[in-house]
Amino acid sequence: MFVCIYVYVCVCMCLATAVTLLSYSRTVILTCFFFLFNCTFVPIEPLHHRTRYLSIYSYAGMFVPSISRHIHLKNVAATEDDDTDRFIVPLKGAAIGNGWMDAKVQGPACIDYSWWHGLIDKPTRDALHVEFDNCMIRYGSDDDIEPPPFHPFNVQDDCGIMWGILQAAGNPNAYDITTWDPNVDQVTFTSEAFYNQEIVKTALHAPMDVTWHGCRQGEGRRRMLKERLLYMVNDRPLSVVPYVADLLDAGIPVLVYNGDRDMTTNMVGTELILNAMEWRGKDEWLDAPRGLWKVDDYPAGWAKEYKGLTFAVVYNSGHMVPYNAPTSAYDLLVRFMTKQSFIDDIAPLIRVEPILGKGSSSSKASSKAMFDTIVPDMTDAIGSDFQQSLADIGGGRGTFETVGMVAVSMFAGFVLALLFNKRRGASSAGRGSYQQVPNANLS
Q1: Do 86 and 127 form a contact (C-beta atoms < 8 A)?
Q2: pLDDT of the chain, 443 residues: tens digit per residue
Q3: Reported pTM
Q4: What are the start-end ranges of the E strands in 237-379?
Q5: Do the beta carbons of residue 333 and residue 340 sit within 8 Å?
Q6: What is the CATH architecture assignment of 2-102+239-346?
Q7: Diameter over CA atoms, the chain
Q8: CA atoms 267, 268, 274, 277: torsion sign
Q9: Domain boundaries in the chain?
Q10: Are the CB atoms for 53 and 67 separated by under 8 Å?
């Protein structure tokens, strides 16, 4: 059932792509999906009692909350109208994998994630944040032009921030920063090599003179084609996080998960939007139970759970969790659909109150202010102690005389030590330099 629903979403999106008579928006895709859903499941009575779960990936994180909420509202309307002829969809949950749900939060998070993982330096990080802010300010205005390699906001890669990061980092794989496999925008990507084989094109009845490209740059999706706009042209930097909140408030479980090596839709941005989400469990979510998730008694990631919301981070996985960690991905879906907890070993809750408001994370200058305050005091203390010590050593002499005595004593000691070591050198050849220990146990 899970696979079937996934396929129907894909079919719907393909239809929206192929038929370009309109400027497609999420509303059109919702209508398309719901039509296919009803046409497929309503006539098959034995399937009526089967529960439904929606799950999808990546940028389609914009669609799962939208589609799930649409189904929920249709169910509510049918119940309130006492419409027995309308099919009530038994929707039991929605899962979002490495999902893009709020560009204005996840865009900047992509920059910070890259900095924290050593892909870029701080000056580059700061410059990218400025560019993202500029792009959002200019969005939709007459001055909506960005300097290369950036571009005005679009549905695939926002303002080109991700590609800017990759260039600055030497072009690692955006979907798995631990690898250098070519990215999806390059014709050398594995899937592109597969789909452009003659035997595959023949099997798919695809034209031989057309090169299949896995992920066209965003501006290509928005271009004019014979005065008809391609799909998603109306997509804007809007958030579907309120839709997730609606599902949770309606008692529909939601699973959100991320591979820890994915730069694009990373775990940092996901956590930020979940922490800020307005829903019935917001006040308790920050301190909700969190712990280690294990598969076959081995750490598969960590998870946090509260009132139907589960957030899981999958270890050693990039953007494509089923590809990078298939065993963990299977366990993840099984636990979600069978309502099992993801937390196998509970983690301690660490919360610390700041002292007198100092050291608070809300004040960027607090630690610097403390340092500036403490260091002069320490310097004064050290200075006074040092002067008192000189006075004691000098037996009442002036500071200049005492310092002179100390300097002469130190120089005499240095000359004696030098002569002593020179005499020892004849019988201790090689001492003072690093010598490898023979037969050392390096295990």
Answers
A1: no
A2: 444 444 444 455 444 444 333 334 556 666 666 666 666 666 666 666 778 889 988 888 988 999 999 999 989 998 888 887 777 888 999 999 999 999 899 999 999 999 999 999 999 999 999 999 998 888 878 777 888 888 788 766 678 898 899 999 998 988 999 988 766 555 446 677 788 899 999 999 999 998 877 665 544 444 444 444 444 555 677 899 999 999 999 999 999 999 999 999 999 999 999 999 999 999 999 999 999 999 999 999 999 999 999 999 999 999 989 989 999 999 999 999 999 999 999 999 999 999 986 655 544 444 344 334 333 443 344 344 444 544 454 455 554 454 455 455 555 555 555 554 555 444 444 333 333 333 434 33
A3: 0.70
A4: 254-259, 290-295, 298-306, 309-314, 345-346
A5: no
A6: 3-Layer(aba) Sandwich (3.40)
A7: 107
A8: negative
A9: 2-102+239-346, 103-229, 366-412
A10: no
Residue type, 139: Y
Q: Is 181 exposed, middle or buried (0-12, 13-18, 19+ CB in 10 A)?
A: middle
For the record, the structure tokens of 195 come out as: 């789909």
- DSSP code per residue over 277-307: --STTHHHHTTS-EEEEEETTEEEEEEEEET
Residue length, the chain?
443
